[in-house]
């Protein structure tokens, strides 16, 4: 089922339904022209579009969804780079597909060589999320929810997670994550969208600029596994506290991982 929300004013909205695909398209016409398309499979961002200077909506992501794959199985097959979904229960890699917590060793499902990546073989990106429409005084959107059972992919504890995608004033997109468990467990959630803000991929990202207020970073080994150290960003390519151009030279000098 395709659910399309066109929010026209503060307390009223129009819901259109069809049987084409399985996605939700959100455009908040109170505050701007940003258009966000989501699907409950993986709680994924399929598309983010914004009008250019002529008013033509252009794509800002590289996500698989805008290519119109027929179903979630084909989507999963084409989405080996995790373009757009929620990564979890634990985003990034866990070395050796195992960890120790409170004196107990937990064995996970390896899906990245000997390691576990983005939650395992059937991570949150490959599950069907529940969803509901949400809004507040200035934003509208969708809240996705998922129940991850104790032992799923080897992780301990029942975990209830939610992710809200909200379109707000001045064409802003907000993502809010929560997780509540009944037992100590690792939990690291993120959206794994790929972005190109030039519009319909007109140019590479080398003219993009980035700023991150982070003061520290996690060094990784040759398999992109965090070493356990926490290092300051000073005098490293990861010092992005001031706006920086993502030039070819800068990206070539930045370690992967």
Question: How would you briefly describe this protein structure?
Answer:
The chain is mainly beta and 257 residues long. The chain is built from 2 helices and 20 strands.
Structural write-up:
- By secondary structure, this protein is mainly beta.
- The protein has two helices and 20 strands.
- The strands form seven sheets. The chain has a six-stranded mixed sheet with strand order 2-1-3-4-5-6, with no helix packed on it. Strands 12-13-14-15 form a four-stranded antiparallel sheet, with no helix packed on it.
- Strand 3 (24-28) and strand 4 (35-39) form a beta hairpin.
- Residues 1-21 have low confidence and may be disordered.
What keywords describe this structure?
4-stranded antiparallel beta sheet; globular; mainly beta; single chain; 5% helix
Please state how the strands of the largest beta sheet are arranged side by side: 2-1-3-4-5-6
Tally of separate helices: 2
The portion of residues assigned to helices is: under 10%
Poorly predicted runs of 5 or more residues: 1-21
Helix-strand blueprint:
Blueprint: E1 2-7, E2 13-18, E3 24-28, E4 35-39, E5 44-51, E6 57-59, H1 72-78, E7 86-87, E8 93-94, E9 98-101, E10 104-107, E11 116-117, E12 130-135, E13 140-148, E14 159-168, E15 172-181, E16 190-191, E17 209-210, E18 216-217, E19 231-232, E20 244-245, H2 248-252
Parallel strand pairs: 1-3
Antiparallel strand pairs: 1-2, 3-4, 4-5, 5-6, 7-16, 8-11, 9-10, 12-13, 13-14, 14-15, 17-20, 18-19
